[in-house]
Specification:
Structural class of chain A: mainly alpha
Strand content of chain A: under 5%
Largest interface: A-B, 73 and 65 residues
Strand order of the largest sheet of chain B: 1-2
Number of strands of chain B: 2
Radius of gyration of chain B: 26 Å
Radius of gyration of chain A: 21 Å
Oligomer: heterodimer
Strand order of the largest sheet of chain A: 1-2
Structural class of chain B: mainly alpha
Order of helices and strands of chain B: HHHHEHHHEHHHHHHHHHHHH
Helix content of chain B: 55-70%
Largest sheet of chain B: 2 strands, parallel
Distance between the termini of chain A: 13 Å
Chain lengths: 501, 554
């Protein structure tokens, strides 16, 4: 038990150490950044998978930083939900890291990239692992600031503009989160999330909690790119280098946005019916607005970015249904979306790497020249469109069934409609980029180098076998224990405070 | 706690009369397609993938047919849509990738609605196993569930209003793919699924049957009218593939045993003669390099086997006795007449639609046969019959057209269809085909003898002579037959309807596309890229949230 607790700080320590080492040593040695990046992310993936087993064996684990006892010191908490998000984040980070080995050759100063990348990863892991509300804000800012810099990494005009917009809007979101935290602190006189949940349950629902809920929905909703707080995303995500786009769309909006929102709304404040229906409406709105915006895009990465908004809508819709099945489906979709959306961004990066364009109208017939990219893109497109037997089908199916089961068939209808339009827009991508006749100027196009191929194939494999996470015996340990945390609601306080004694 | 309810149940697969019967024919058509492809697809790129997809299609189709659980069925069903998409892409024409996309969006889109139907059924019954379901239309949700599932079946089979992918696919996909999927396999599966949900999963009532009857009648008439004015061989056949679905839907919609049996029998017959037509058409395409009717003509002399098979299949599709199409249409008519017993006069409408559709089909095939096989050859070129890999399947199918027609009761009905239905099918007026067939054969023999004895064999061919003038519209001085029915589209209201059809106002895909891009335009206009606007939305959104959430408290 004590041994298990000790893995917790490593989720933050390893990437921070990696970032520090890269900045310190890897400036001169060309091959070192790749090695440090891959080794750190691999180690993180290993301990996050280990954490799943530990959580299943011992229940929620609490680590007190510096030996200060709860609720005075900063706590780090590992439970089903956080280990689920950690696996998602670090899995994608590892695969993206491998991809970047080849891809980032296009840019100078690889070491800066890896430093920022690992810093962002440290922030994301920190948000997920922390049990202290102000600490959460600190990690949120670490991840956000690193991501602003990464969006601007190419330092072209439009990249800087996108980064500026992103920074401005994201800071506004962060400030509202900070305001919310300040309100809660003054109301409960504690910053520990479990303790705060305990105090709030004693005091009962009142105006402060409602007010704070709105602030958090706005702040974290902005990080998660829920409509109408989404407008920064379609500029920021396409402007970043492809591996970073994959990280931003794949996991950043989920760990900073959805994870933090759900953790606070469900476990700390406690969900109420009006808040749940507000989230339902926001989720559905994102789902539909995102896909309608996506379908008309001709810039491949921008199209993908709009789909992120739409898919986040599915996740929020599922979780906000509040039924066990809905939460399960929402979280499953969160995982699936991380996988296929990262893959799609990596594909778009591969196309850009080989042809130098991301304008769909200029591509065509690339399937013959780039079979791995085309094939994996097909798999990812079918996954996001919910075509069986790929992973997206299963999570959408569960969300739709859960919505009908919860007596909300209209939300199910919108989910189906968005699914149809998603299919339409990805057949558009396949048609213009990969099928059809090869344009003459692409006669000399080559498939991408080996590390990029390997990472795309790995993600495609997960898309194909993703449905296996539903098999009974597998689903309880991974998705099940994550959804149980949310289903428990403010019972979280008892679990965490109980596990300390 | 088990978070995921047991959606699958225990019995995932089930074998019964109907699934075995459909399964047999799936394998049969697949084998024919593979044999034919060996000839047709020779020397094309990516054949490894092509055959892989064909084999996967067979597996997935069998999965659909033998599935007992709707989710299992849905997995295979959805995967078939993807395979169709990939197979169409082998067409290699300019519009092919557009057509593949369109077909997949229509099919995949209705599949998404089927998921909604599944969710409704699960909500109503708590089970998704076909053998445990029997839902009555007493709630709105049940009706919606049926409509969602039926939409999937309609799209797969190509009934209106989800039919528009069929003619496009027929024109742009490789011919064996067209013969394999839209013409045979997708029909089998679509109608199989429609029959399953109508017979087993739901308890049909007169109102719902009427919906099917309307869909069936409209499909028959509208599609055949479109077929009349086409001038591409494969596209014309594609419209007929839509039109014939109407008979099957009509048969199932009658709700009486003989009508349902007729509908299913027609599905089988249609698969046989339509794939025969497409495969024969493919032979023509392979040898002449075109499917444009105005460029074809006089091929009967060069391709006798193809001509005969095409002719037999044309008679079958037009419902000429004693071929199989007649036998099944006759049963559908009987089914419609049977519904008259329940009162109401609407049955006359359905009957007229069915019969009129049949007449128009014959008319359209007269044009087609004239334009392709009779008439004058377009150019003097050497065209030879296709190789055995391509004519064996068509001959086999053509003989099935005859056998299933002449021995309709003895072979297909008694051996395959009636056992699969578990119903008491009463034939009110079964047509004894034996005598008529003998008379027909005698007639043909006599005609042939006259032909041999007479001077008909000693003909003389010469150029067309029109008083020394050259026709402006027809510089090569021949009547291709393409314009046979062009006058139809000039009649009053029909002219207007054809105009609308040309603008694709009846194409659910095009209509949906304009609506989608309308919304897209509005939303793009709003996203002007100006930071203060975006920030204003955030604040506005927050204010609205404040208002809504505090409204609950005060």
């Amino acid at each position: 038990m004590t041994g298990a607790v000790n893995i917790i700080p490593f989720f933050v320590v390893i990437p921070l150490a990696g970032a520090f080492l890269t900045a310190l040593l890897a400036k001169k040695i060309k091959w070192l950044p790749d090695i440090i990046g891959s080794v750190t992310t691999l180690a993180l993936l290993a301990i996050s998978i280990l954490s799943i087993f530990k959580v299943n064996a011992y229940g929620a684990l609490v680590y007190s930083v510096g030996g200060w006892k709860l609720p005075i010191g900063i706590a780090m908490v590992l439970d089903g939900f956080s280990s689920f998000v950690l696996v998602t984040v670090n899995l994608i980070a590892f695969i993206v890291g491998i991809y970047a080995v080849n891809y980032m050759e296009r840019f100078t100063s690889k070491w800066k990239f890896y430093t920022l990348f690992l810093l962002m990863l440290a922030g994301m892991n920190g948000v997920v692992i922390t049990g202290d509300l102000f600490n959460l804000f600190v990690f949120l800012e670490i991840a956000s600031v690193a991501s602003y810099a990464l969006v601007a990494f190419g330092t072209e005009k439009h990249e800087l503009e996108a980064a500026f917009k992103y920074a401005a809007m994201s800071t506004v979101g962060s400030l509202f989160v900070l305001l919310g935290i300040a309100f809660l602190y003054s109301f409960t006189s504690t910053l520990n999330m479990a303790d705060m949940a305990r105090v709030l349950t004693q005091k009962g629902a009142n105006n402060i909690t409602v007010m704070v809920s709105v602030l958090f929905i706005m702040g974290f909703g902005l990080k998660a790119a829920l409509v109408p707080f989404h407008a920064w995303l379609p500029d920021a995500h396409p402007s970043a280098p492809a591996p970073i786009s994959a990280m931003l769309s794949g996991v950043l909006i989920k760990s900073l946005g959805i994870y933090a929102l759900c953790r606070i709304i469900y476990n700390v404040i406690g969900i109420t019916a009006p808040v749940a229906s507000a989230l339902l409406v926001l989720g559905t709105l994102s789902m539909v607005v995102g896909v309608f915006l996506a379908i008309g895009q001709w810039d491949l990465k921008r199209l993908l970015a709009y789909h992120s908004i739409s898919q986040i809508g599915y996740v929020i819709l599922g979780i906000a249904l509040g039924t066990p099945l809905g939460i399960f489906g929402g979280l499953f979709h969160l995982f699936n979306h991380s996988v296929f959306k990262s893959l799609l961004f990596l594909n778009s990066g591969a196309v850009e790497y080989s042809t130098g364009t991301r304008d769909l109208k200029k591509m065509g017939g690339l399937m013959g020249k780039m079979p791995v990219t085309g094939g994996t893109n097909l798999v990812a497109s079918m996954s996001i469109a919910g075509i069986p037997p790929f992973n997206g089908f299963w999570s959408k199916l569960i969300i739709i069934i859960a919505a009908v089961q919860a007596g909300k068939p209209w939300f199910a209808f919108w989910a189906v409609l968005a699914s149809l339009l998603t299919l339409a827009s990805f057949t558009k991508v396949m048609k213009y980029a990969f099928f059809g006749t090869l344009k003459e100027k692409w006669n000399k196009v080559k498939e991408v180098p080996v590390f990029m191929k390997v990472s795309m194939l790995a993600l495609a494999l997960i898309c194909v076998i993703g449905g296996a996470l539903l098999i009974s015996g597998v689903n309880e340990g991974f998705l099940g224990s994550a959804s149980n945390v949310l289903i428990e609601g403010t019972g979280y306080a008892k679990v965490i405070l109980g596990s300390v004694k | 706690m088990n978070l995921v309810p047991d959606l699958l149940g225990k019995a995932l697969f089930k074998v019964d009369g109907m699934s075995v019967f459909i399964g047999i024919f799936i394998v049969f058509f697949s084998l024919l397609t593979i044999v034919y492809s060996l000839g047709f697809m020779k020397k094309r790129k990516g054949l490894g993938h092509y055959y892989l997809y064909i084999v996967l299609t067979i597996v997935a189709s069998l999965g659909v047919v033998f599935a007992n659980n709707l989710i299992i069925l849905m997995i295979f069903w959805g995967f078939l849509g993807l395979l169709l998409y990939l197979l169409i892409d082998f067409g290699g024409k300019e519009r092919t990738s557009y057509t593949a996309k369109k077909a997949f969006i229509i099919i995949g889109g209705t599949d998404a609605f089927m998921l909604l139907g599944l969710a409704f059924i699960w909500h109503l019954n708590g089970s998704l196993n076909i053998d445990k379901l029997s839902i009555a239309f007493n709630t709105r949700l049940a009706v919606l569930a049926y409509l969602c599932l039926a939409a999937g079946a309609f799209a797969k089979a190509g009934a209106m209003p989800f039919h528009t992918w069929v003619p496009d696919t027929a024109e742009d996909a490789p011919t064996p793919v067209t013969a394999f999927l839209p013409a045979s396999l997708d029909k089998l599966l679509g109608i199989y699924f429609l029959a399953r949900i109508s017979l087993d999963v739901f308890q049909m009532d007169p109102a719902m049957n009427r919906v099917l009857l309307i869909v069936g009648s409209v499909t028959i008439i509208a599609a055949v009218m479109m077929a009349l004015v086409q001038h591409d061989l494969k596209r014309l056949l594609g419209y007929h593939a839509v039109s014939q679905v109407g008979y099957m839907v009509l048969g199932i919609g009658t709700g009486v045993p003989i009508g349902i049996a007729g509908g299913i029998f027609h599905m089988l017959n249609h698969a046989i003669y339509k794939s025969c037509l497409f495969l024969s058409g493919g032979a023509v395409e392979k040898k002449t390099g075109t499917t444009d009717l105005s460029k074809l003509g006089g091929l009967a002399k060069f391709m006798p086997i193809t001509f005969i098979t095409f002719l037999i299949a044309s008679f079958a599709i037009s419902g000429v006795p004693p071929f199989n199409g007649f036998a099944s249409k006759w049963m559908v008519y009987q089914g419609i007449i049977e519904t008259a017993k329940a009162g109401g006069r609407l049955w006359i409408v359905w009957l007229v639609a069915a019969m009129f559709g049949s007449a128009l089909t014959l008319a359209s095939f007269m044009k087609l046969i004239h334009a392709v096989f009779l008439g004058q050859p377009a150019k003097n070129r050497k065209i030879t019959e296709v190789g055995p890999a391509m004519w064996i399947p068509t001959v086999l199918l053509a003989s099935l057209c005859v056998i299933f027609g002449v021995f309709a009761l003895a072979i297909p009905l008694k051996m395959l269809i009636l056992p699969s239905l578990n119903m008491n099918v009463v034939f009110t007026g079964f047509w004894g085909s034996g005598l008529a067939t003998i008379l027909l054969i005698v007639g043909i023999i006599i005609g042939f003898i006259i032909y041999l004895l007479g001077t008909a064999t000693k003909t003389r061919q010469t150029e067309i002579f029109v008083g020394g003038e050259t026709l402006k519209d027809n510089p090569d001085m021949r009547v291709s037959g393409t314009e046979f029915y062009n006058t139809v589209s000039d009649i009053g209201i029909l002219k207007f309807i054809y105009k609308m059809a040309e603008k694709k106002l009846f194409d659910i895909y095009e209509v949906g596309k304009s609506i989608t891009f309308g919304f897209n335009g509005i939303l793009r206009y709003v996203h002007n890229g100006i930071l203060p606007t975006y920030l204003a939305w955030c604040l506005l959104g927050m204010i609205i949230l404040f208002y809504i959430l505090f409204k609950h408290i005060w």
